[in-house]
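User: I've been trying to design a sequence by hand for this structure and keep getting stuck. Would you show me what you'd pick, starting by listing the structure so we're on the same page?

Assistant: Good idea, let's start from the same input. This is the structure you sent:
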């Protein structure tokens, strides 16, 4: 982390100076916007020109919990650390429930812990961002690929279906398809029984030919392929499948 931009919210100028001194030892490119009143906080939130918030709990004009809620309302993914000597266990618990990323006690021996807390929080933030980006890429592919894709449980409940799947089966919307039990789509129940048997014995089904009933009652032939997803106990959670008509 070469450059770190922080909102430092604390009424005590000596404490702010100690925090800045300690952090600059670890983060040479540190940029600090010192916030001492609500107007400054509002301006900073509007600009969004920061990576993280470090706030005291007991302020002359607010509390750290209120600050946390304000920040998370405007910027839900922004990391927030509470660095305070006036909080309590109840404050810590309430803050964690409200989305606080870490809680550090403000005592001389704990000043050294603050850089480590920042690194931990920033690492978790980057992991969340990477996961979100991966999920977005996956969803984009899922929605755009010209093959019918779906997830369904062993009981036949659809968990998801892409637009191609919805169009293939002629349903008015994704929600209409998800409301139908997968077993109702099969013209011959025996085909579904055979499909499940292969899937659960081999954990995969490839190009299994089936007849499906569309929304308007017409029947189509399709080739079904799927993987079985299981939990740690080996129980089937759901099937990840693809249909080609």
């Amino acid at each position: 982390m070469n450059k770190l931009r922080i909102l430092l919210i604390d009424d005590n100028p000596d404490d702010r100076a100690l925090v800045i001194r300690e952090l600059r030892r670890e983060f040479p490119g540190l940029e600090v916007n010192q916030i001492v009143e609500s107007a400054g906080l509002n301006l900073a939130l509007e600009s969004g020109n920061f990576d993280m918030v470090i706030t005291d709990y007991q302020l002359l004009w607010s509390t750290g919990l209120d600050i946390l809620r304000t920040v998370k309302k405007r910027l839900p993914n922004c990391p927030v650390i509470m660095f305070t000597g006036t909080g309590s266990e109840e404050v810590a618990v309430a803050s964690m429930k409200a989305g606080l990323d870490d809680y550090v006690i403000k005592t001389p021996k704990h000043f050294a812990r603050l850089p480590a807390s920042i690194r931990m929080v920033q690492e978790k933030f980057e992991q969340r961002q990477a996961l979100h980006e991966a999920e977005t890429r996956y969803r984009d592919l899922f929605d755009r690929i010209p093959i019918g894709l779906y997830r369904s449980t062993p009981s036949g409940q659809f968990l998801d279906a892409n637009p191609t799947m919805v169009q293939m089966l002629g349903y008015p919307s994704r929600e209409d398809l998800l409301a139908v039990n997968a077993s109702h789509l099969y013209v011959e129940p025996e085909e579904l029984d055979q499909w499940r048997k292969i899937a659960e014995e081999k954990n995969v089904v490839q190009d299994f030919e089936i007849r499906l009933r569309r929304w308007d009652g017409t029947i189509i032939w399709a080739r079904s392929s799927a993987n079985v997803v299981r939990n740690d106990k080996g129980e089937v959670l759901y099937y990840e499948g693809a249909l080609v008509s």
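That's my pick for every position. To get oriented when you compare it with your attempt: The two ends are 51 Å apart (CA to CA). The mean pLDDT is 92.
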